[in-house]
Structure formats: structure tokens, C-alpha cells
From TrEMBL:
Keyword Phosphoprotein: no
Subcellular location: Cell membrane; Membrane
Membrane topology: Peripheral membrane protein
Name of protein: ATP synthase subunit delta
Superkingdom in the source lineage: Bacteria
Taxonomic source organism: Corynebacterium lizhenjunii
Pfam families xref list: OSCP
Length: 272
């Protein structure tokens, strides 16, 4: 995003957080997120409307009046107020305003999970889902089929998730599948990272030769927090090919303390 859009999004983000304070935060957040996703679907299908909302040549009051006329009666009060506020800002492009609404919709749902005391659970569920999709290549291929309708993809994933995750995780995952940015594995893992950031934590991706228990994860999180100077969230998976030890990835940094890694480095050293 260019400077104008970044400033507009920062303003809308603050406005959203203020809207969701007090009242029934869980219900308001959930409804706002879902409403914004529906608005995005309309905008994706209507180029003329996208252009009108991002037209900086028209008065902010005119753009606000337009969204109020088109969406006002169809949205929850917080979503309607937020949409009007977004429409009144200066955006650098039509893409930016739509992407901003996607971001705000996701943030609203994550705030709802936070109000419900489930944000940590949602973070973990999103990560687990990303790993399932990474392993289940057939399912991922079906979800990335460009010839399949979005509704069909959502129904397919909804059947997989039904009764197994929170409503917030399900809503976020279904929206991500319907409107992909890169691929399902990366997109959903990115959402897990966003959930961690809202809790003031950074994610450490840990691959081990055997399953880690909660106590081991807590100890590792504390050690990594000391090293990196910030709270850490451990996302772990098992890979028996490591033979022992673990591989840790934090951002772009990789710490390979696995037995397989040590053997590989020893072989490299001996071959020189």
C-alpha cells in the first residue's frame, strides 16, 4: 500500500477497535467481520462500485452517502458505521480499499475471539489447519481449483471443519479459501501469525522428531523469549526423519539442532 492507503487503514483500524469496545463485543465483532466479508464479495463483482468508493475526486460525504444507500440497511450498526468511515478516507487504489476491508473483517473476527477468550485457541486451530492442508495435497488441490466456484470450496472446507473448531476459526478459514491471496497453506498460516501478533507474541515454528508436551513447549517459549526479547508462541509439528532434536524457525532465521541436521553438516565437513 502507498502512504495514503496506509494512513487510511491505520485510521480505520483504530476506528474499528473503538467501535467494538463495550456492548456485546463477541456478537458485534462476529457480525461486523461477516458483514464486511459480504461487502467484499459485492465489491469483487462490481468494478464500477469499487472505482466509485476509491474516487478521491468525489467528496467524502458523497462516498459515505453511497455506501449508506447501498449497504446501510443490510449491515449491523458497527459494520455500517465502519464502512462509511472507510469510504470517507483517501485510498490510493481500488485494490487497497478492498484489501483493507478484508483486513478489517479478519481483525473484527479475531477481536471477537479475543473477547470470547478464544484467541489463543483460534491461533492454534488455524496453524493446525495449515499443517493439515500441507499434508493433504488432494484436499488442497480441490480448494485451489480455479474452475470450482467459491461456494463449492467453502462447502468442502466447512464439511472438514464442522464441529471441530471455533466459529471464529471456521469463518476466517472459509473467507480465506473463498478469496485466496497466495495458497491455502500460506494464507491460513499467515492468519495464525496475525492472531499471535494481537496477543503481543511472535510465532516460532518448531519441528521435532517426537511430540512435545505442553510443559516442554512452555520451557522452549520462555527460552526463545529470552533470546529474542519478546513473547513467543510455539507452533510445533512432528517429523520423525529428524531422528532427534529439533528445527526452529523464527521469521527468516532457522536454528537446526536436529540429529539429521548435525549428520548433514558433519558429512559436508568431511567431504571438504
Amino acid at each position: 500500500m502507498k502512504a495514503a492507503s496506509r494512513e487510511a487503514l491505520a485510521h480505520a483500524n483504530t476506528f474499528l477497535d473503538q467501535l467494538l469496545e463495550g456492548g456485546d463485543a463477541v456478537a458485534d465483532s462476529a457480525r461486523t467481520g461477516l458483514d464486511l466479508f459480504e461487502v467484499v464479495e459485492v465489491l469483487d463483482a462490481d468494478r464500477e462500485l469499487r472505482v466509485a468508493l476509491a474516487d478521491n475526486g468525489s467528496a467524502p460525504s458523497a462516498r459515505k452517502a453511497l455506501v449508506k444507500e447501498l449497504f446501510g440497511s443490510k449491515l449491523s450498526i458497527p459494520a455500517a458505521r465502519l464502512l462509511e468511515e472507510v469510504a470517507g478516507q483517501q485510498w490510493s487504489s481500488t485494490r487497497d480499499i478492498v484489501n483493507a476491508l478484508v483486513f478489517l473483517g479478519r481483525r473484527a473476527l479475531l477481536r471477537g475471539a479475543e473477547a470470547q477468550g478464544q484467541l489463543g485457541q483460534v491461533e492454534d486451530e488455524l496453524f493446525r489447519l495449515s499443517r493439515i492442508l500441507d499434508r493433504e495435497s488432494h484436499l488442497t488441490q480441490l480448494l485451489t481449483d480455479r474452475n470450482a466456484e467459491s461456494a463449492r470450496k467453502r462447502n468442502l472446507l466447512a464439511n472438514v471443519l464442522y464441529g471441530k473448531v471455533t466459529m471464529f476459526t471456521e469463518a476466517l478459514a472459509l473467507q480465506t479459501i473463498a478469496r485466496p491471496e497466495r495458497n491455502p497453506v500460506v494464507d491460513i498460516a499467515s492468519l495464525a501469525s496475525t492472531a499471535a501478533q494481537l496477543q503481543g507474541r511472535e510465532i516460532a515454528f518448531v519441528t521435532t522428531a517426537g511430540q512435545m508436551n505442553e510443559g516442554q513447549q512452555a520451557v522452549l517459549a520462555e527460552k526463545l523469549g529470552t533470546i529474542y526479547g519478546r513473547a513467543m508462541s510455539i507452533h510445533s509439528e512432528v517429523d520423525s526423519s529428524l531422528l532427534g532434536g529439533m528445527v526452529i524457525r523464527v521469521g527468516d532465521e532457522v536454528i537446526d539442532g536436529s540429529t539429521a541436521g548435525k549428520i548433514a553438516r558433519l558429512r559436508t565437513a568431511l567431504s571438504k
